[in-house]
Amino acid sequence: MEISGWDVAAVFAKAVTYAATLGAAGAVFFAVYCGVLLRDPQRGLIRRLIGILVAIAAATSILRILLLAGSMSGEMAGMFDSSFASMILGAGEGRASGVRIVGLALILFALSKNPVYRGPATAGAIVAATSFAWVGHIHGLVPNTAPSLLLCLHLLCGAFWLGALPPLLIIAAGANQPQIAAAAARFGKLALRVVAVLLAAGLSLLLMLIGSAAQFWSSDYGRMMAIKLLAIAALLGLAAWNKLVLTPRLLRGDPRAVGLFRRSVLAEMSVGALILLTTAAFTTFTGPP
Amino acid sequence: MLKNSLLAFALCGIVAAGTCMAHAKLQSSSPANNAHLTEAPKTLTLQFSEAAQLAVLKLVRDGKEVPVPLDKSAKAGQSFTLTLPALSPGNYTVQWSAVAADDGHVTKGSFVFSIGA
Lengths: 289, 117
Description:
The complex is a heterodimer. By secondary structure, chain A is mainly α.
């Protein structure tokens, strides 16, 4: 497939949609799970973060459809061609975007301080994060109930893990050391199990899609997936360092640990961004062999 | 109650997602890629790996587009046959883009054929 500037723009829009949607969903999960440890300034900042991410996710979901329409025709005018838009919306991408918008709208309940809205916000986070499972290569598998379930698990765990990083950064930037240590420890405890499920689901899906090691290395899909796997390995290394080295130092009151923790979370966010960009690329330009 | 509601939401997503497909690839065409024809073809056929909607089809000869009627509102299918105008000898490039019917993935490509004098 020939790749144009339109295609590259559509991939970036897809990556930003992933980041903003999973980020908003993950921030909701974090607020529910670690909320008891948060103080008002951090709570307010996390609510604001959620609102911004919801707006970005909604905007890029729409922008991506316009860019796909432009990509189809290769011209600016194509972006506003209603026949292209209706083809894209009438297919799986339209349903996925519709589900995502509903989920994002429910996530906005998290902007309220009233804890009664936590339920709808969490439901919205689940719907939005799993909206990406409405399209994609897994649906070429027959039957695809198990792959769809695995992908939903993978997305929810990814949202929990990556989506927690910005709130952790907010806490690391503004809270005192005991609060930072408590949040890091609480998050790290559940994160271990979540990452295990994320990896198990992801690897199972990969085996279902690729089929064999030989096909992995001989296909564009496999080679691009290898970049994602390398980035995940780097992310796991950073996460392990956070849990096994930095969090204990935070809990002991080591004054240097706060700065190191902040830099480590930033590094994880950068690697997370690379993972999402790679995923957007190989799900757009290639398909399983 | 909340946990059951949340699980129901997630399962709805899973069940509803069950019917989608992935990238539609061009499996074959008539004229075939790199075909050298002695007579001008009257139709152009594209065969895809999965049901798709043909969004764009451009036939170009010497940098100039040859108009080919395309019904963009046609239903999705795996095979498309379009009626060609009378073509003069020369080298032709067909540029196409299609949208997979179920997941909206856009695929694009091109192929060439020539008509001998």
